[in-house]
Amino acid sequence: MSNLLEVQSVSKKFGDFTALNNVSIAVPKGSIFGLLGPNGAGKTTLIRIVNQITMPDTGQVFLDGETLKNHHIKDIGYLPEERGLYKSMKVGEQALYLAQLKGMDKSEAKKRLKMWFERLEIGDWWNKKIQELSKGMAQKIQFVVTVLHEPKLLIFDEPFSGFDPINANLIKDEILRLRDEGATVIFSTHRMESVEELCDHIALLNKSNKILDGNLMDVKRQYKTNTFEIGINPKQDNLEQELAQKFSITPASFKTLGNDLKLNIKLSENETANDLLNYLTTKGQVSHFVEIIPSANDIFIQTVKNN
Amino acid sequence: MNHLPLIIKREYLNKVKNKAFLIMTILSPLIFIALIAVVAYLSQLNNDSQRQISVLDESGYLTGVFKDSESIKYNILTDKNLENAKQIVKEADNYGLLHIKKMNSLSEAKNSVEFYSEETPSLSLISDLEKLIEIELTHKNLAEKNIDTKLIDDSKINIDITQENFSGEKTSKFDSVVKLAFGGAAGYLLFMFIIIYGNMIMRSVIEEKTSRIIEVIISSVKPIQLMLGKIIGTSLAGITQFIIWLILGGVLMVVVTAIFGIDMTQIQSPQQQMMQQAMTDPDAAEKAQIIFSAFFNLPLANLIIAFLLFFISGYLLYSSLYAAIGAAVDNETDTQQFMLPILMPLILAVYVGMFTVIEDPHGTVSTVFSFIPFTSPVVMLMRIPFGVPLWQQIVSLLLLVGTFLFTVWFAAKIYRVGILMYGKKPSYKELIKWIKY
Predict the structure, then answer these.
(1) A51 neighbourhood in chain B, CB within 8 Å
(2) Are the beta carbons of A74 and B217 separated by less than 8 Å?
(3) B419 → chain A, closest CA residue
(4) What pLDDT tens digit does each residue of chain A (307 aa) get?
(5) How big is the A-B interface in CB pairs under 8 Å?
(6) DSSP A118-183
(7) What per-residue confidence (pLDDT) applies to B290?
(8) Measuring CA to CA, which residue among A131, A210, A121, A199 is closest to residue A167?
(9) Cα B411 to Cα A54: distance, rounded to the nearest angstrom
(10) Among all residues of chain B, which has the CA nearest to that of A51?
(11) Contact B420/A48, CB-based, under 8 Å?
(12) I need a labelling partner for B208 at 20 to 30 A (CA). Which of A160, B160, B298, B332 fits?
């Protein structure tokens, strides 16, 4: 799979403050790429560099194999975290203006806008002023404006903030549909459950440095601890002590029907799941056996803390 | 991709369609004309009321001198003493009592005239009375000393210096007044334009920041394009407003004059008085001819071209700074500290223009200030009607354009960084740092 966006050793300083230190990322074509990191890690600076709002001090950015140039503006759709619209302008007028700034022809923009407005069931907003709309409604318009010119690369910074669960779902589905239609999505968020749900690649920034990146599943594999969550109805009373001697265990908590013994069992590197399961079956009735996959949340917290 | 026309169009339409702007555009000349009409009407009313003044002349020198005029009706009292006269005047509710004491000879005249009234009399009334009595008594005095007054009048010589420059163009004192009026109007217009529309640009930048649309916009266009688009769009809206004001104002002026029959020339401004002083009482036709020739004595072609060039560059110079201020702050209250350094040279320019150019349009101070870029647009525009050597105009303009390019660059830097900065109000030190970003 080739990369749509490649950022190579980009650094950016603001006065004495280093916002990005030699950061490289590669965003595969057709992927949803999660750009993660704590506040102030440099995500927004990186996104602004890709959008050519800020120029990097050193390093290069390639879009679809070409050095990033002015004309690439029309290939990128950007929904910034700090977003808004002209309050006193009418919805339709404003959307048309923003579309034209992205290089779209007026009549084409109008046609597509009508289609989008219909799809999101906001057709009757065309002649309303933004100040008459609620925040969530304005966010919808903003989303449409971002994707209207059918860019190759979509960059969303906290796209779901301000949406109720229904509309958040609607937007999520639209993002997935756009991906299926060929767009590549960069997705910056603090909401880890949406990372789990949507992203297939991630990069983690912390204090201006990239500390982790790759395919989400690969990352998880890398971070797995060989730990299993088990539930067992033991034949003997002292099973827990026995297990404690053999493995490193911690109490676990999940729902079961019976009054089972619930534990997290961490295996050493040369032991496998089968070894554990075979052992457990001799000791009682196994009701629960799951490998613990580190969540994006765990990975985030763990790597940022260790860094 | 050049989006400049698109941005200009939006800024223009957005301004022009704005309700407050529309109301201002239409209401301002109405209010202005109404104000003038009221002032004219009131001053007419003021003059209309005829005042009754009683005169008690105990000297006998001034019999038959006081003739009723439009504004004063004289009531000559005879055979009364002062106390009686005062009583009568009070009872008749007259404006005042003019009392001329008995005098043995005209040499006592100086302190022999008194005026009694309830309120302090108006300055013009007193000076009119003084003049009237002075002339009469002077004549009487001359006659008493056997001096022929006609001889004196005949021997008076009036001098009217005719002015001509070395290339043979005739000018008059009146020319200077017209030049002053032209230069002053041009300079003042620029000043007003900068203040009104500079502020409008600043507010529109702040609006983009507070509505947080700015990042969406500059992911599509270069900040400098957005800034220039804003400046040009707002300026065009400003010019539209100005033209509407001129047309509406002119039409209304004519209408109001026709309907109410108010003579606008009744309101005398200091300039008009100056003009009248400059013209030694010519008749109407001559008056028109003088104005006409004075107008054509102006270096018109030079004036128009210089006006356009200096006006545009001067305006752009300041408006780019306004845009930069708007970008640097989050809300309008924070703009104060940055406004002062902009307003100072502007106000200085207007005052330097008003005081030194009138005194001597080619004096050192006015010449120097017509070269300093921040004051040159206003001061040079005021000087040009008096004829400024071409090289001076060109050098001044080059300096101005150079500075303008620098401020646009500077403003664009501030703008580029500032529009994405939220939160705390930046200091000057931080602004300088932004330039290096």
Answers:
(1) 219
(2) no
(3) A53
(4) 588 999 999 999 887 888 899 999 999 999 999 999 888 888 989 999 999 888 899 999 999 888 988 888 889 999 998 888 888 888 999 999 999 998 889 999 999 999 998 888 888 888 888 888 888 888 889 999 999 999 999 999 988 888 888 888 999 999 999 999 999 999 998 888 888 889 999 999 998 999 888 898 898 888 888 889 989 888 888 888 888 888 888 888 888 787 888 888 888 888 888 888 888 888 888 888 998 888 888 888 888 888 7
(5) 66
(6) HHTT-GGGTTSBGGGS-HHHHHHHHHHHHHTT--SEEEEESTTTT--HHHHHHHHHHHHHHHHTT-
(7) 66
(8) A121
(9) 16
(10) B219
(11) yes
(12) A160
A16 to chain B, any CB pair closer than 8 A? The answer is no
Q: How far apart are CA A43 and CA B259, in angstroms?
A: 70
Which of B142-146, B182-186, B292-296, B350-354 has the lowest average pLDDT?
B292-296
A142, two tokens: 């903003």
Residues of B in contact with A83 (CB under 8 A): 212-213, 215-216
Q: What is the mean pLDDT of residues B373-388?
A: 85
pLDDT digits 0-9 by tens, B194-249: 888 888 889 888 888 888 888 888 888 888 888 889 889 998 998 898 888 888 88
Where do we find the tokens 């190759």?
Answer: A152
Tokens of A256: 């079961």
Test B215 with A87 for CB contact under 8 angstroms: no
State the Cα–Cα distance between residues A251 and A72, nearest whole angstrom.
Answer: 54
Q: B211 at the A interface (CB within 8 A)?
A: yes
Cβ B376 vs Cβ B400: under 8 Å = yes
Angle at the Cα of B74 (from B69 to B79), degrees rounded to 5? 155
Cα–Cα distance measured from residue A95 to residue B10, given in angstroms and rounded to the nearest whole number: 12
- Chain B hits for A14, CB-CB cut-off 8 Å, are 437
d(CA B39, CA B112): 38
Give the C-alpha separation, B265 to B255, whole Å.
15
Buried (b) or exposed (e) across B171-199, using 16+ Cβ within 10 A?
Answer: bbbbbbbbbbebbbebbbebbebbbebbb
A74 inside 8 A of chain B by CB: yes
Of A71, A78, A86, which is closest to B211 when you measure between CB atoms?
Answer: A86
B173-185 pLDDT tens trace: 677 777 788 888 8
Per-residue b/e over A29-42, b at no fewer than 16 CB within 10 Å? ebbbbbbbbeeebb
Q: Are B375 and B311 in contact (CB under 8 A)?
A: no
Residue A192 to chain B, least CA–CA distance (Å): 25
| Six-digit token string for B170 | 């005739």
Please give the pLDDT value at position A203: 92
Of B10, B213, B433, the CB nearest to A15: B433
Contacts of A15 in chain B (CB under 8 A): 433, 436-437
Query: Residue type at A212?
Result: L
- C-alpha distances (whole Å) from B139 to each of A256, B125, B150 are 130, 22, 10
CA distances from B281 to A210, B69, B127, B134, B278 (A): 88, 22, 21, 22, 9
Predicted ipTM? Answer: 0.79
What are the chain A neighbours of B422 within 8 Å (beta carbons)? 82
Letter string b/e over residues A266-298, b meaning 16 or more CB atoms within 10 A of that residue's CB: ebeeeeeeeebeeebeebbeeebbeebebebee
Q: Give the one of B211, B221, B422 whose C-beta lies nearest to A101's C-beta.
A: B221
Residues 235..264 of B with a Cβ closer than 8 Å to A: which?
none
Nearest to B70 by CA among B47, B42, B93, B88: B47
CA distance A247 to A265: 7
